[in-house]
């Protein structure tokens, strides 16, 4: 079954994307759209294919068929290192920080493609390298400050409590000032109070930024999303407003027996 929503102004679209991994059909002709300036949810039971959707959007996995549209432009394949240039940033499920780098250095990595100089210029000791590095360092500190974790800047991820690590990962995605932010289970493993703060934070970004939110925590999804897509076993089974999705029998059936859905 196909779902056609009256999507106005989608900044990101996935059209008929199919992915097979190790002989298994992981995504089966998935079409979803993310209207500009919204928080759009992507939910579904464990193993539904949500992270795979993010991996296709960010170019870690090449789809067998179908295509993406970013800002109305068809893309056959987005290279992961070109993602920031296209105004897209993502967080990883879990935290995915580099363990031997400080929180600040981890955040700087998220903005490093902004630094024109890059590795070659650094190797050649170009005079403006330091200036740009300093600018990136200042931007990264500013984002850590906005997320109230400036005091974690010089600590290694392993020295920080898990919810702070999650914020560092968020800061790394935010430092490139993305138009589109892909968040993979940002509420995973954090407390109810932290989730409530996260909800306020996510809503504070729109409509300047657009958010595609993969999340297992239903209360957060229902509270912050304007529109929700539901994936089950690699197929879109429902789409609509939080109220429509909540009442949809197919969605309830997909979640039956799921422990994680709260
Ligand atoms: N590299 C891979 N090779 C084979 N199967 C994979 C691979 N990556 C993910 N899968 C499978 O694809 C399905 C969807 O995974 P994933 O996108 O991580 O789901 P979700 O994020 O919705 O929990 C799962 O059944 C998972 O085991
Ligand atoms: Mg996942």
From TrEMBL:
InterPro entries: AAA+_ATPase, ABC_AA/LPS_Transport, ABC_transporter-like_ATP-bd, BCA_ABC_TP_C, P-loop_NTPase. This is Unannotated protein. Residues 12-258 form the ABC transporter domain. One of its GO terms (molecular function) is ATP binding. CDD domains: ABC_Mj1267_LivG_branched (cd03219). Keywords: ATP-binding, Nucleotide-binding, Transport. One of its GO terms (cellular component) is plasma membrane. It comes from freshwater metagenome. Pfam families: ABC_tran, BCA_ABC_TP_C.
């Amino acid at each position: 079954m196909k779902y056609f929503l009256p999507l106005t102004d989608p900044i990101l679209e996935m059209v008929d994307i199919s992915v097979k991994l190790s002989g298994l059909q992981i995504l089966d002709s998935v079409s979803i759209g993310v209207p500009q300036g919204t928080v759009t949810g992507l939910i579904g039971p464990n193993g539904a294919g949500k992270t795979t959707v993010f991996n296709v959007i960010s170019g870690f996995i090449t789809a067998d068929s179908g295509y993406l549209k970013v800002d109305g432009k068809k893309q056959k394949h987005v290279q992961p290192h070109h993602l920031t240039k296209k105004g897209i940033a993502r967080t990883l499920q879990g935290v995915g920080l580099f363990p031997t780098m400080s929180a600040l250095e981890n955040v700087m990595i998220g903005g490093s493609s902004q630094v024109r100089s890059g590795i070659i210029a650094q190797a050649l000791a170009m005079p403006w390298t330091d200036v740009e590095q300093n600018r990136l360092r200042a931007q990264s500190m500013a984002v850590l400050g906005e997320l109230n974790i400036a005091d974690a800047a010089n600590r290694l991820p392993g020295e920080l409590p898990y919810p702070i690590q999650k914020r560092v990962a968020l800061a790394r995605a935010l430092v490139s000032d993305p138009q589109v932010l892909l968040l993979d289970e940002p509420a995973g493993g954090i407390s109810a109070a932290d989730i409530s703060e996260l909800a306020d934070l996510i809503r504070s970004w729109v409509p300047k930024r657009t958010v595609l939110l993969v999340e297992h925590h239903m209360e957060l999804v229902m509270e912050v999303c304007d529109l929700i897509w539901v994936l089950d076993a690699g197929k879109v089974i429902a789409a609509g407003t939080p109220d429509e999705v909540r009442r949809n029998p197919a969605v309830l059936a997909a979640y039956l027996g799921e422990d994680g859905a709260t």
